[in-house]
Amino acid sequence: MTELSMTGPSNRRFVSVKRRPKEDGRFISGSGRFVGDIKRPGMLHIALVTSPYPAARILSIETGAALALPGVVAILDGAALAAVSNPLANAVHTPGVRCYSLANEVVRYVGEWVVAVVAETRTLAEDAAELIEIDYEALPFVVDAEEALDPTAPPVHAAHGSNVLYHRTFTWGPVAEDFASQPNQLSFDLRWGRSAPIPVETFGVVAEWDAGAEILEVWASIQMPSYGEQISGALGIPFNQVRAHYDVDVGGSYGVKRGIKHTVLAGFLARKLGRAVRLVEDRLENMVGGDMHGPDREFRVAVAFDDQGLVRSMKLRVREDVGGHTGRAPFQLGKPVSAIVGAYQINSVEYEAIAVSTNKTGQTAVRGFGMSPTNVAIETAIDKWRVNWGCRGWWCASVISSARISSLSDPQRFGI
Amino acid sequence: MSRKISLTVNGAALEAVVEPRLTLVDFLRDQAGLTGTHVGCEHGVCGACSVLFDGAPIRSCLMFAVQADGHAMTTVEGLRDEDGSLGVLQDSFWETHALQCGYCTPGMLIAAEGCCRAIQIRPMRRSARRSPVISAAVPAMFRLSKRSVSPRPAGVSNR
Predict the structure, then answer these.
(1) What ipTM was estimated for this complex?
(2) Residue A50, min C-alpha distance to chain B (Å)
(3) Residue among A28, A37, A250 minimizing CB distance to B105
(4) Cα separation of B29 and B75, whole Å?
C-alpha cells in the first residue's frame, strides 16, 4: 500500500504544484474570443421588435418604411417563420402549445419577440425596427399561477384547452401508511420566487449557412448540451447539418444561456439569405425578453417524523409558474424526481408536480436545472420540525445539525 | 453628419470618421479593431468596458467616440510592457488567477492600472481592496515586480 505524505515538497507535475491556468493568458491580454468578437465575411445583423403587451392579438404589421431604409436586407415576422419551421421543443407532451422564435398570431408576455429586422449593421437594424408599426388588440391576461388554474382564466395557449401544461403525481413507497402511523407531522407552504441571473455578457450567436457542404455553422455564447439537436429539430434539417462551434469563450451563464430561439432565428435567416447573420442581445433585449428567468414555484410540504426525529415520509406538492413560453419549464419539474429525498433516507415520498401557463416571461435552466427549490423545501422541513418541537435558542443550530446528520442516508448504502 | 476625429489609442495616432451617436466602446471594438474591451451592462454600472482616458479609468459605454477627439486612450491591449511582454499587472492577474470567465477582466485590469497609477501619489484607498481576488492580485503585482514567477503552461508563450 502506498503511503501518502501530507507534507514535504511535491514531486508531481500537476497535483499540489502551483500552476497558472492556461486559459487566463488570453483573458488578461485582451485576446479572448467571445461571440461578439467573431466576424464573418458579409455578416448581417438582427434587431428585434418586441411586444409591449402581456397578451394581445397581432392585427397587422406595417414594414414598408423600414424596408425602404437603405441597408435593410430583410424583415421576418412570426407567421412567415411558423409556416416553414417547427415549434421549439420543450421535452414534455403539451398538445396545442406551439412556441417559435417570433410570436405568431398572439403575444403571450411583455418583451416577446414579434419581428426581426436584418440589416448591414446593428445600428441600421435598430433604426428600421423603430419604423415598424404593429397593430395589436389587447387581450385579458393572467400573471398569477393560482388564478391561471381557474377554468375561467384567460387561456395563454388557447389551443391547449387549459393553462395546466403538466400535472402528475409520483409516489414512491407506502406514503399513506407512513403518515397514518406517525403522529409527528408538520405541514407548511413555501414560495420560491423567480430569480433572473444576468451574465455580464448577453447571449449572442453568429450563424452561417455553408451552401456547398449544406451545413449550418453556429458560433454562440453557449455551453448547453443538445443545442445542435434542438436547432436542427426546429429548422427541420438533420442533426449532422448543424455544426456548433464550442470553442467560443462564454462571458458567464448561470445556466440561462440557452439561446434556442436566438439560434433558430439567426440560423433560419442565414440559410434563407445566404449570408452570415449575427444576433447579439443588447442589455434591454437580454433583460426583457431574453432567456433569464428561473423557477417560480409554490410548495405545500407535509412531513411525518418518528420519535427519534427521523423523517419517515414526505409529501411535496409544487405548482410551477411556467410563464408564456414553455422553454425549459415544465421539464425542469422532472429534475427533482431523480433526487427527491436530497441527501436523506426517507421511507416514502409523494411528489405532485403541476405546471401552469401565465403571461409572464418563460423560464430557462437556472443553476442546476430546477433542483434548488426542492432542496430548500426539504431543508426547510427539517428546520421547521425542530423549531416546532420546542427547539429554540442558542443550541437550536446544533440540534438541527444533528437532525440532518441522523437523517442522512447510511454511507454504506453508497458502498463507502 | 459624420465627424472626423483624431485620437491616440495605446500610443498610436488614429484618425476616423464616426457618427456622433457611436459610443466609444463600439468605436474601439468595431472601428479600431480592439476587441479586448467588452460591452457589459451598457449603462455604466459594471465597468467591463473601462479604458484609461488621459490616464484615468472611464466607462467607454457612457461616452461617444466624438468626445474622445484629441484625447489619449489605453485599452487592455496597451497594458503590455514596452518590449511587448505582459505588463506586471497582467502577469499578477494570471499568477493569482484573478478571474473566472474572463469577460470583465479587461475592465478589472484597467481599474487596477488606474489604481496603481494613483497610489504613486497617495495610498490606496480601502474601497479598492474590497474584492478578495483583486486585493490578492494587486499586492501580487508588487511581489511579481521582482519577477519570481510560477511556470506558465507548456506551449503558452508570453504573447
Answers:
(1) 0.86
(2) 19
(3) A28
(4) 10
